Structure formats: structure tokens, C-alpha cells
Task: inverse folding
């Protein structure tokens, strides 16, 4: 039988605070990631179109997203998170994830898991949430809604990492919006998943999750689509400011991801 086409990430080393022993807490150690993904369809059918293949960035972003979610005691839990994130993309059919600690022994110790689409728990075990870009005052839809704040419209300080500064400004906007609407603010995937399971709304502060994912951008619309993809949302609601036009790139990206757009009138 023909083997599926594969993409891989090898010898990807990052530092993280991880481990169940007290001696591991409060200090970082090197982790090495090896990821191999069996593609759901041959790359020959992509026609040299980058939008029709599984991007290599998906693998590095899955690692970054997993590490951003929480502090882990077990490598196994982190590996499961990474596998679920990758398999949320329809171009991925099967994934093998290896995570190794490089600083505990002279060699490496770790775990390897193999998961197939349809046989791994999704990142959010509750109903898929709706992502809402909140650019105008509206009544929130009921149920599990993740609200992405609009840019605060204030001048940002010049210099430094402009993208990170913009993300931190959105964090401030999230806390201000949360206070105004009386809704909790979440900055991790764990908190977002909990809100989805509880079928309740939450405001997203994006800096922690998006800072190390360059493809997330820093504009609220791009961030909303990026988040919708990662939490498995099937709908992205847009409450646009008066006079604002729908971004064609957002519309195309949502269509490619199978996410429906809904415009909400203020």
C-alpha cells in the first residue's frame, strides 16, 4: 500500500518550565520536539498552491500554542495538546509527536505518541464556540462566545517590537471591555476551553497566545480568524464599527478554513 505524503519538524529545541518534580519548578529546561504529519491528501493535488497544503508553520505554532496554554507536569499532556492542535487542520490525517527533555540526564528522555484524525480529543471538549470581533456595541449572542476586542484607537509608543506593543494594547482593551460588559477575561487556551465547556462568554486577551505566532498578525480581524481556526469555531461574527468595510482577506481566509462569517448590526 502506498505511504501517505508527510511533512516533519525535527530537532526543534525550546526552553520551558515543565515537570512534576519540585526541582523542575520555577526554572526552564530544554525540550526537543520531533513531529511527523501524514497528510490527508497527496501534495501533488495542491497544484503548487500554498493555500491548499498544510503549512510547516502549523507545526511550530502547535508547539507554541501548547506551551502557552499552561504549565505542564507531564510531557505526555503537552504532546497530546500538540497532536490535537495539528489534527484540527483538515489537511492532517495522522500525527506522531515526540517531546524530549535534554537537561535531566546526559542523553534525552521523553515520550512519543501517535494520533489519527477522529481518534483524538479535540482541543475543546465542549461545543465549538463562536468567535466575535467586537468593533461596535451590540448585545452578545448567547452561549459559548469568545469576544475579540477591537483596537483601542490610541497612539502606541514608538520603537521596540511594534507587534508586541500592539498585542499588549489589545490586552488592555480586553480588560477594559470585560469590565464594561461584566465578562471574564481569558489569556490562555485552557481558560478559553473551560468557558466553551461551561457555555459562557469570555473576552480574549491575545498577547500571551499570539505573541510567538507571527501568522496571527496584530490586527483584530486577523487575530479573530487565527483564533477561530485554533478553537475549531465554525462561525466568526463581526460587529464592525460604522463605516467599516469587510476585509476581503478575512473573507477569503474564513472561506478557506470552512468558517462562516456573520455580520451583526449594532
Result:
Amino acid at each position: 500500500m502506498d505511504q501517505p505524503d508527510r511533512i516533519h519538524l525535527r530537532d526543534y529545541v525550546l526552553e520551558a518550565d515543565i515537570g512534576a518534580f519540585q526541582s523542575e519548578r520555577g526554572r526552564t529546561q530544554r525540550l526537543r520536539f520531533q513531529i511527523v504529519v501524514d497528510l490527508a491528501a497527496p501534495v501533488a493535488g495542491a497544484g503548487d498552491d500554498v493555500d491548499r497544503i498544510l503549512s510547516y508553520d502549523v507545526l511550530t505554532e502547535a508547539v507554541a500554542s501548547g506551551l502557552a496554554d499552561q504549565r505542564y507536569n507531564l510531557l505526555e499532556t503537552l504532546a497530546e495538546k500538540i497532536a490535537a492542535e495539528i489534527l484540527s487542520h483538515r489537511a492532517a490525517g495522522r500525527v506522531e509527536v515526540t517531546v524530549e527533555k535534554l537537561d535531566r540526564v546526559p542523553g534525552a528522555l521523553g515520550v512519543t505518541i501517535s494520533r489519527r484524525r477522529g481518534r483524538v480529543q479535540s482541543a475543546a471538549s465542549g461545543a465549538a464556540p463562536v468567535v466575535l470581533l467586537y468593533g461596535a456595541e451590540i448585545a452578545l449572542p448567547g452561549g459559548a462566545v469568545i469576544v475579540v476586542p477591537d483596537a483601542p484607537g490610541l497612539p502606541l509608543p514608538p520603537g521596540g517590537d511594534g507587534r508586541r506593543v500592539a498585542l499588549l494594547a489589545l490586552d488592555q482593551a480586553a480588560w477594559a471591555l470585560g469590565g464594561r460588559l461584566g465578562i471574564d477575561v481569558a489569556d490562555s487556551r485552557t481558560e478559553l476551553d473551560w468557558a466553551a465547556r461551561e457555555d459562557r462568554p469570555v473576552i480574549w486577551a491575545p498577547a500571551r497566545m499570539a505573541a510567538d505566532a507571527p501568522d496571527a498578525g496584530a490586527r483584530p480581524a486577523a487575530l479573530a480568524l487565527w483564533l477561530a481556526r485554533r478553537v475549531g469555531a465554525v462561525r466568526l461574527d463581526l460587529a464592525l464599527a460604522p463605516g467599516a468595510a469587510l476585509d476581503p482577506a478575512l473573507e477569503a481566509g474564513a472561506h478557506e478554513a470552512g468558517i462562516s462569517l456573520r455580520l451583526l448590526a449594532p
Notes: Helices lie at 57-69, 75-87, 162-181, 189-197, 207-210, 220-231, 248-257. The chain has a mean pLDDT of 86. The longest helix spans residues 162-181. The beta strands are 6-16, 29-39, 92-101, 109-116, 130-134, 145-149, 185-186, 202-204, 235-239, 260-263.
